[in-house]
Amino acid sequence: MKRIIPILFCALLVALASCQKKNAPLFRGDYSFKTSGSVTLDEIVTEGGTGDSFTASLPNEIGQLEISALDNGKDSVLVVMNTMGGEVVVTHAFCKDNEIFLRDFKKNTLLFTGDSLTLKNDLSVKASGQMYEDNTLILNMVYEGEAETNDRSFKIYGDDIRMAAIRN
Fold first, then answer.
1. Which residues constitute the domain of residue 43?
2. Radius of gyration over alpha carbons of the chain, in Å?
3. What pLDDT digit, counting tens, does each position of 80-125 carry?
4. Which residues are 80's β-sheet partners?
């Protein structure tokens, strides 16, 4: 009887360890990321006027991304993006199979155009993505917002922004 108790205890530990590994969420972990893309800026003008339109490049942002589980069902996660030399963005996301859907969030960024126009603005960001090979996360992002500079206002839109994140 004394020999059976340690064997049962070891079997229980092995069973618990295998369950934790099996149920670990696919996205949880620490990543290094790079974001790149461009947006269109359309000048907002008064009635009857015509405004300029620019294509602005986003700076190549790099930083750290952390994804951690929020609930027992393992489908809700907390996403923390820490851009090097920039801001920290925190949002929630929902995971389904190998896809992740981030709740819309606000972001500050600099935009650069070919006409030496530099804008700092607040953008609304929509993002979703997929996991590839269990260690590479590709997020597709849509930026929308407005910016003002030199007594001019612009609408901002970009849907070809990508974040590539590799698990550390």
1. 26-167
2. 22
3. 999 998 789 999 998 888 899 999 999 887 666 555 556 667 789 9
4. 66, 90
